[in-house]
From TrEMBL:
A family per Pfam: Pyridoxal_deC
Protein name, UniProt field: Pyridoxal phosphate (PLP)-dependent transferases superfamily protein
Organism placement in taxonomy: Eukaryota, Viridiplantae, Streptophyta, Embryophyta, Tracheophyta
Cofactors, names only: pyridoxal 5'-phosphate
GO MF annotation, one: pyridoxal phosphate binding
């Protein structure tokens, strides 16, 4: 049979080698040509069903024919997050090191829910998260040698959910299960929507989720005064303040909540304090950005997505917690078939008790590879380069009187908009919506938007590993050209 391909065995080291090489070549070529694709996929909904057969093949097909379909049918429906012209949402980095770690993890393919199921998986995760905690200068209570420690979750949303469950159960153990309806969760109107989702899952009543209003005067950061007011009001009404989620680098504008002041308030009321640094946490490995984490010592839990801006392929969300027993009490179940000597002796960490699913991948390999193959200095330069490129873009916007910077840039996100003279807000919003559609449908770049104080805002985030100055300048030219058409019309 052709290349032995049609005799593909369930596992065979030589076949793996041969096909693995072909796949790596395919992926390497993808990266080589990535700038030739429209960044935002231009297909219509349902396009793929028209191109693929109605049922799975009865007889095996060749890898070549599958890759041919990937090239002609799948890639047109891919939005290229790794394109150097990708400036939307927040980045979701891949890298050579991250890819190699992902490959190794997929290759070993163990399921490390308990220490015994692969001691190296648990122990490497503890070590690597201690390394990263030290790089971020997190308080030592987050290190695995004490009652705390770190664990890799799939996403920031999962991290938030598990710590909310830990906080909820800790309080309910003290005040009784019937108090669930009186628990209150706090964030700001800039907090990521994963907080509301976590509350929904955790059974926190929607009317007890306080998304406190932020404003332009303090750059959309959560104000300690408004938190104190809300808590005092809730306590006076017989409610129980449970949980605060503060953010370093909010999704809309990368606002930074004042951790120290907020943390002091949570301590006063015995509230669990979670810090979401999903995107901006990465920047805090640079000494000049670390001050944004000042006050993190007040936090009970801290989260950063290494899969966003830290060269680690999706998914890898690092969560640290000061009191792991709270998490374990909320999430541990030990049926007979999972019992083992090491777990029972209490000498090991079983990460199944720190997360929602039982099964878990060897994700620490990716992060370990990234830290070892790049080293801290290169990682810091990587972040600084993106921030400098964002600054470059911001300068270009600021020099063009047709545009306006809408929020102060803190990291690598620039919030801006076109501002036609003498026009009302409604019209300005409409023009910016159309401008966004125009640049995205050109396929040349991809950006996303938000709304701040009623203004429709364009978000330009630098963070893809292949982005260079020429891409940023090219993107800016595109905005300028589009602006000319919009303003003339
Ligand atoms: C600040 C912040 N928190 C949480 C999230 C949710 O991330 P995830 O997709 O890992 O759940 C995001 C996503 O962009 C975010 O920007």
């Amino acid at each position: 049979m052709e290349n032995g391909l049609l005799n593909l065995k369930a596992m065979d080291s030589e076949q793996l080698r041969e096909h693995g090489h072909k796949m790596v070549d395919f992926i390497a070529d993808y990266y080589k040509n990535i700038e030739n694709f429209p960044v935002l996929s231009q297909v219509e909904p349902g396009y793929l069903r028209k191109l693929l057969p109605d049922s799975a093949p009865v007889q095996p097909e060749s890898l070549e024919s599958v890759l041919e379909d990937v090239q002609t049918k799948i890639l047109p429906g891919v939005t290229h997050w790794q394109s150097p012209d990708y400036f939307a949402y927040f980045p979701s980095n891949s890298s050579v090191a991250g890819f190699l770690g992902e490959m190794l993890s997929g290759g070993i393919n163990m399921v490390g829910f308990s220490w015994i199921t692969s001691p190296a998986a648990t122990e490497l995760e503890m070590i690597v998260l201690d390394w990263l905690a030290n790089l971020l200068k997190l308080p030592s209570d987050f290190l695995s040698k004490g009652p705390g420690g770190g664990a890799i979750q799939g996403t920031a949303s999962e991290a938030l959910l598990v710590v909310l469950l830990a906080a909820r159960d800790k309080v309910l153990r003290e005040v009784g299960k019937d108090a669930l309806g009186r628990l209150v969760v706090y964030g700001s109107d800039q907090t990521h929507s994963s907080l509301l989702k976590a509350c929904q899952i955790a059974g926190i009543h929607p009317e007890n989720c306080r998304l406190l209003r932020t404003d332009t005067y303090n750059e959309y950061a959560l104000s300690p005064e408004s938190l104190t007011d809300a808590i005092s009001h809730d306590v006076a009404s017989g409610l129980i303040p449970l949980f605060l989620c503060a953010t370093i680098g909010t999704t809309s504008s990368t606002a930074v909540d004042p951790l120290l002041a907020l943390g002091k308030i949570t301590k006063r009321y015995g509230i669990w304090f979670h810090v979401d640094a999903a995107y901006a946490g990465s920047a805090c490995i640079c000494p000049e950005y670390r001050h944004h984490l000042n006050g993190v010592e007040e936090a009970d839990s801290f989260n950063m997505n290494c899969h966003k801006w830290f060269l680690t392929n999706f998914d890898c969300s690092a969560l640290w917690i000061k009191d792991r027993s709270a998490l374990i009490q909320a999430l541990s179940t030990t049926p007979e078939f999972l019992k083992n000597k090491a777990s029972q002796e209490g000498t090991v960490v079983d990460y199944k008790d720190w997360q929602i699913p039982l099964g878990r991948r060897f994700r620490s390999l990716k992060l370990w590879m990234v830290l070892r193959l790049y080293g801290v200095e290169n990682l810091q330069s990587y972040i600084r380069n993106h921030i400098n490129l964002a600054k470059k873009f911001e300068d270009l916007v600021a020099q063009d009187p047709r545009f306006e910077i809408v929020a102060t840039r803190t990291f690598s996100l620039v919030c801006f908009r076109l501002l036609p003279a003498n026009k009302n807000e409604e019209y300005v919003n409409k023009v910016n919506r159309e401008l966004l559609d125009a640049v995205n449908s050109s396929g040349k770049i991809f950006i996303s938007h938000t709304v701040l104080s009623g203004k429709y805002v364009l978000r330009f985030v630098v963070g893809a590993p292949l982005t260079e100055e020429r891409h940023v300048i090219g993107a800016w030219k595109l905005f300028q050209e589009a602006a000319s058409t919009f303003i003339e019309n």
